[in-house]
Amino acid sequence: METVIAFIIIFGSLVFFHELGHFLFAKKAGIMVREFAIGFGPKILAIRKKETLYTIRILPLGGYVRMAGEDFDTVELLPGYRVGLELNELDKIGKIYLNKEISNPNILFLETETADLSKELFIEGYDEDGELVRYEVSRDAIIYEKGQETLIAPEDRQFDSKPLGSRIMTIFAGPLFNFILAFFIFLALGLINGVPKNEPIIDEVIADSPAYAAGMEAGDYIKEVDGTPVDKWTEFTEIIQNKPGENVQMKVERAGELVTMTMIPSVVEDSGKKFGQIGVKYKPEFEKSPVKALKYGATETVTWIQRIFGLLGDLVTGKFSIDALSGPVGIYKATGDMAQHGVFTLMNWAAILSINLGIMNLLPLPALDGGRLLFFLFEGLRGKPIDKQKEGMVHFVGIMLLMVLMLVVTWNDIQRFFF
Q: Where are the membrane-spanning stretches (predicted)?
């Protein structure tokens, strides 16, 4: 149950901040946001505030911000449609009823001749006396159809009507907010728990390990590895991990003197990739400083962005196989493991996941934010947008492929963790 709660809180928070980025920049650009949703599937909770419906849905595996004009959500009244109209105090149409008989005497009925609910905002048609009449439509008119209410979206409130720069920032804001969230989590860790000193000092040497055989002792301060100066523990571990089975020469400071030793890191294989390991342990020490906490938040965010991009590069070049990828099941399992090590470890994991989510969404794949940004790039180069139907088809194919990939990754996770 603790794992379930931790997973829902962490993943829900990451999705919330991602969609919040889209939402805030859409509002700033003047785009009508029809729905702000966390999760997919049937609604658990729905609250309408002004023009936006805020929902929580049953499957906590994502979310979306539905903007006017994105999904062909504009209503078109064709000639011959019978509509009911309710006028406001300015004698403009405030409510439009479609395909519904209403006994309210204040409702006017028209057989539509021509209508424009996007640009010119009018409806023209024949009333019950057969006379051709024309009414202006209010910018905040509501359409009622089959029990559903939909605000009309004037052209200037639709996503596609906005300048290219505004649309780019609205889409890019989702991943951007994931990076910002990660920064603030790392900052909070630095302020609450302290900033790791990260000094390359050996705390313990494991018996019968390469380090033990080479004569390394607890308290040794690593100065250089194969001629490369070392200032941080993370630098030291990265060098060793990249030298599996290779001869390595180290210089350590012991009791004020430099000691040179040679060893061969053991070869450890994980997710199809080989790593070096020498058999030493590190005991982190922390110091509290607001200035260092700010620096820690920024450097950790940048470092993890670089690491994840590096892992993606390894995947593309074949150093990692698709079996190394994890989906929701793998993330759930890892979240449970992290929760056992305490709240600070869980917070660090949440920050890494947030960066991962941001980067994954920036990949230039159809249906992802990166895929949409790629279409904006083409639009900028061509000087005109790609045909919406063609773009929609590409995104549809992309969604199908992503679903297949998700099924493969989920099956791999199930085999890895439960069999």
A: 6-25, 168-192, 346-368, 392-411
